Amino acid sequence: MEKVTIVRSMQRRSVGIQIMPDASVTVSVPYLLPKFYISKILKEKEAWIQQKQQLMLARAPQKESNIYYYLGKEYVLGVPLNPKEIVEVADKIYVASRNPSLIKTYLTSWYKQQARKIIVARVQHYAGISGATYKSIAITSAETRWGSCSSQKTLNFNWKLVMAPIEVIDYVVCHELAHLTELNHSRDFWETVRKMYPLYREYRTWLKRHGHKFRV
Ligand SMILES: [Zn+2]
Asked: 23: CA distance to ligand 1 center in Å?
């Protein structure tokens, strides 16, 4: 924990820890609280702080490049001359607006639509092969995971997955389908994934390395 700012206040009676958008930590404390005590509290809260920091970093709008990803390909943004659709993919991703916040809104809703179409089709494909039965599929905006499977057999997938190559989407689909029968990440679970998708390791690694780039 490097970036900790301590704010001392005469008015304060308790210790408050705040994780800032850049993941730095601000601790507000009563004016005379000794430093060792602050360190002790920070140590106790370390796991919680790290969890919040990761959430902040995942959420931060760090679109550092003009590259947009769709099914693993890189695109720059273009404004169409004669827009027929609000968003279209060709050599670029064409969005019928020059307003940055509208572009973001249009792209997000377009990505979600594509995610639904593609992921539902891939789930049906692999469920057909493996015989897995599920209740429903939801496309979510979960910031911390790519997919999940509830005990009610609802499969959830993050819409940003549609930015990844189809092989990576397939891996996540098979991962969640495997959770229909194996709720944990036991050896049996990974064996179930492997049977459905033998190359899963490669794409699991790919997602860990590149998933952070997927922003709108
Ligand atoms: Zn899992």
From this structure: 26
Ligand 1 centroid to residue 169 C-alpha, Å: 14
Distance between Cα 183 and ligand 1 center (Å): 8
Which amino acid, residue 21? Answer: P
State pTM to two decimals. Answer: 0.70
Given the structure tokens 């005379």, which residue do they identify?
A: 32
Structural domains in the chain, CATH included, are 4-59 (no CATH), 68-213 (3.30.2010.10)
- The packing angle between helices 200-210 and 166-178, to 10°, is 110
Neighbouring C-alpha atoms within 13 Å toward the C-beta of 185: 2
The whole-number mean pLDDT for each consecutive block of 10 residues of the chain, a chain of 216 residues, reads: 80 89 85 92 91 77 76 94 91 92 94 98 96 96 88 96 98 97 94 96 95 89
d(CA 110, CA 88): 9
Do 180 and 134 contact (CB within 8 A), yes or no?
Answer: yes
